[in-house]
């Protein structure tokens, strides 16, 4: 009985005592029945006969008055005990429990701060209040809590709300931190749907606690669809907003550069981009830069950033020693602290080796390449080595960033295989044609029907570019490709001065029948006659650039140079940009988005299974040790090798994670992995209540609670309080009781009344 009362009354302790009050009108009625009646007339026989005639009517009226007074007492009792009743389910008569499923959004935008409060902290406060209110009816309500970043593992699962739960909940919420990740609200809602579908409780309520950013509703239509599906299944839905207003926010959206070619004492140019997500202009924005946690003696200043716009600026960093280095840039804290910093990990080398293979032993084309990319190694950071074709088959190529093949007639097949592996693993390859080139070999062994090192089949002989018809035409027409970003989109006298006389044409048949289908081949520069001159394609992880003219002024039989490009300053710019563009960074040198795992697949013949990870200093600099598991893996050729495989997944904190891999000879190979805050969380514009309701179709099952308001929690837990209905019924009953009591009572006429 007590459990039933606590389930259906907020103040259940008062119900039993208040029930005794129902006896009061009955006792008063019985006492009145025993009173003598005063009769002021002498004709007693007449009065007695009249009383007997009206006795049944009077008795019915008195019993009706008694019933009204009993109902009045019951209504007062219901008001004092605060009855809770779901009129659609009549759970009061079924003894049903209610189940509250809370989905807490802990994505990066919930770190949005105003004063000392954040959206996430506001959400935790709501959870505590819901649980505390439910504890007023212990063991009659169930509670589940899903945190969005761990939607597949609820923090609490169908637990009875009681004092024990309250204590455990308080402890867990005190240690719960908001993530930095970009999360999908629909994933948490789908988990709630599965949980509610499994539950047999008659009353089900979903509480979604979030900041309700506009981007979550405009770009992710699945969220509204899932909520609508829940509302149609007789689930009450509370959308609880935690952030009061949209706030301005500045975010660092990019920190990038050609980090793969970073070398000691060579300035490395980096680019930083800022975006203003607010509605007002941001002025005099200063960004600090740090190398290995040491602040550089400079500030990167943005004079003005218009509302909604993004601007970039370059700056240089010089490293005085090789090895792994950490770079980060930082803004002054604003509404969202996560996007005020951005990180990068760089492996700085003493120099970057580049291999140049000249197919003509007596030629000097290599000199033009070497002079362009490394007039002085301390200036560019490149260290070219000039070798013959035989070098490709006898030495490992993985040490080189890029490989040039100049005027090469043919290649040994084992050299072709070595180059294919080099490029597939991420190396860069550059072809330059020349008179020694053998088209038949290239078409058969290097083109390989579109699967090889060469982008397209060649015609069997070279072709001469006709003489210019006017001085306004140019031989070299470049596209808007990054390699030509300095030249494209403007009249450039350097490019205009380049003369090209001879080249190897692409097969006409291929151009007519297969060029459109060769989606991986891009023509990035053409000749005056629209013939392709420079092409780009990929093989595995690597890029290949093919130039169909010579690398230097090779002379024809008529004494004319193939081209004069090597004498033009644009040649140096092109070759340096080519180095930066082609180099493929190793995966651990690239910045990732927080939450992505760090995968490890290590050669068991080189490494032990012990991996040590140092988390970012901002996370406390903890040390985690992992053990990798052996696993047989096969490469594309079908060769099987033993790999040590594992993954580190706790990368929620932005910053640089340092990894130490122990090799079989007990030496340590260090690596760095940078993780950054997702830019998608930086737009703090909120959806209004009207916008949310329009998206959700104004369903009566859906209620939207404004931030900072908690009065809706009281009485919402197991159904709906019917206080207003009881007050209305009580008012009507009081009027009826007064009218009936007046009718049944005696009202003598006053002495001065008219006869």
From TrEMBL:
PANTHER family: BLL2463 PROTEIN. Gene3D superfamilies: 3.40.50.880, Immunoglobulins, von Willebrand factor, type A domain. NCBIfam families: two_anch (TIGR02226). It comes from Gimesia maris. Residues 17-80 form the Aerotolerance regulator N-terminal domain. The keyword Transmembrane applies. It comes from the Bacteria. This is VWFA domain-containing protein. Keywords: Membrane, Transmembrane, Transmembrane helix. The chain crosses the membrane at residues 12-31, 63-85. Residues 101-212 form the VWFA domain. Pfam families: BatA, VWA_2.
């Amino acid at each position: 009985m007590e459990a039933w009362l606590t389930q259906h009354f907020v103040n259940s302790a008062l119900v039993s005592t208040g029930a005794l009050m129902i006896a009061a009108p009955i006792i008063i009625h019985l006492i009145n029945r025993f009173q003598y009646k005063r009769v002021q007339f002498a004709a007693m026989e007449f009065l007695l006969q009249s009383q007997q005639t009206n006795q049944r009517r009077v008795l019915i009226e008195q019993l009706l008055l008694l019933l009204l007074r009993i109902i009045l007492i019951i209504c007062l009792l219901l008001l004092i005990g605060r009855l809770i009743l779901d009129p659609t389910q009549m759970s009061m008569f079924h003894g049903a429990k209610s189940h509250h499923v809370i989905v807490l959004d802990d994505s990066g935008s919930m770190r949005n701060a105003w004063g000392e409060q954040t959206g996430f902290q506001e959400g935790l406060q709501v959870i505590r209040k819901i649980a505390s209110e439910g504890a007023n009816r212990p063991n009659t309500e169930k509670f589940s809590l899903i945190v969005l970043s761990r939607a597949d593992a609820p923090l609490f699962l169908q637990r009875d709300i009681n004092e024990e739960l309250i204590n455990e909940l308080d402890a867990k919420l005190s240690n719960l931190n908001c993530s930095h990740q970009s999360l999908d609200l629909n994933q948490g809602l789908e988990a709630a749907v599965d949980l509610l579908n499994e539950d047999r409780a008659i009353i089900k309520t979903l509480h979604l606690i979030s900041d309700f950013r506009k981007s979550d509703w405009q770009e992710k239509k699945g969220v509204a669809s899932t909520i609508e599906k829940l509302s149609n299944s007789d689930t009450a839905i509370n959308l609880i907003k935690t952030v009061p207003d949209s706030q301005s926010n500045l975010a660092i959206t990019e920190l990038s550069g050609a980090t793969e070619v970073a070398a000691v004492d060579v300035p490395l140019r980096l680019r930083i981009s800022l975006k203003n997500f607010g509605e007002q202009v941001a002025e005099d924005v200063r960004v600090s830069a740090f190398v290995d946690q040491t602040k550089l003696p400079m500030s990167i200043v943005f004079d003005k950033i218009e509302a909604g716009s993004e601007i970039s600026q370059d700056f240089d960093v010089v490293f005085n020693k090789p090895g792994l280095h950490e770079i980060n840039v930082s803004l002054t804290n604003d509404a969202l602290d996560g996007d005020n910093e951005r990180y990068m990990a760089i492996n700085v080398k003493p120099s970057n080796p580049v291999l140049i293979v000249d197919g003509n032993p007596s030629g000097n084309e290599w000199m033009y390449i070497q002079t362009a990319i490394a007039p002085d190694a301390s200036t560019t950071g490149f260290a070219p080595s000039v070798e013959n074709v035989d070098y490709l088959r006898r030495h490992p190529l993985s040490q080189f960033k890029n490989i040039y093949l100049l005027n090469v007639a043919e290649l040994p097949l084992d050299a072709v295989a070595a180059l294919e592996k080099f490029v597939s693993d991420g190396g860069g390859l550059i072809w330059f044609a020349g008179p020694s080139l053998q088209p038949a070999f290239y078409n058969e062994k290097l083109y390989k029907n579109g699967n090889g090192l060469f982008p397209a089949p060649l015609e069997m002989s070279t072709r001469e570019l006709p003489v210019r018809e006017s001085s306004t035409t140019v031989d070299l027409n470049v596209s808007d490709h990054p390699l030509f970003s300095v030249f494209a989109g403007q009249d450039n006298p350097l490019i205009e001065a380049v003369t090209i006389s001879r080249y190897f044409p692409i097969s006409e048949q291929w151009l007519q029948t297969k060029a459109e289908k060769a989606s991986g081949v891009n023509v990035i520069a053409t000749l005056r006659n629209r013939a392709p001159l420079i092409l780009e394609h990929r093989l595995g992880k690597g890029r290949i650039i093919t130039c169909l003219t010579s690398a230097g002024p090779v002379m024809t039989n008529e004494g004319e140079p193939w081209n004069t490009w090597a004498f033009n300053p644009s040649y140096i710019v092109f070759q340096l940009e080519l180095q930066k563009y082609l180099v493929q960074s190793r995966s651990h040198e690239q910045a990732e988005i927080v939450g992505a795992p760090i995968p490890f697949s290590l050669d068991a013949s080189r490494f032990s299974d012990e991996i040590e990870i140092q988390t970012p200093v901002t996370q406390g600099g903890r040390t985690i040790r992992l053990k990798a598991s052996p696993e047989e893996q096969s490469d594309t050729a079908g060769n099987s090798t033993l790999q040590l495989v594992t993954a580190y997944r706790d990368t929620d904190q932005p910053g640089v994670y340092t990894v130490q891999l122990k090799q079989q000879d007990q030496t340590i190979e260090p690596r760095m992995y940078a993780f950054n805050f997702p830019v998608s969380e930086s737009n703090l514009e909120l959806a209004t209540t009207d916008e949310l309701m329009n998206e959700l179709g104004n369903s009566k099952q859906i209620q939207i609670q404004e931030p900072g308001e908690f009065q809706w929690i009281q009485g919402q837990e197991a159904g709906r309080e019917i206080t207003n209905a009881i007050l209305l019924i009580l008012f009507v009953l009081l009027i009826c009781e007064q009218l009936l009591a007046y009718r049944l009572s005696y009202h003598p006429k006053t002495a001065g009344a008219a006869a």
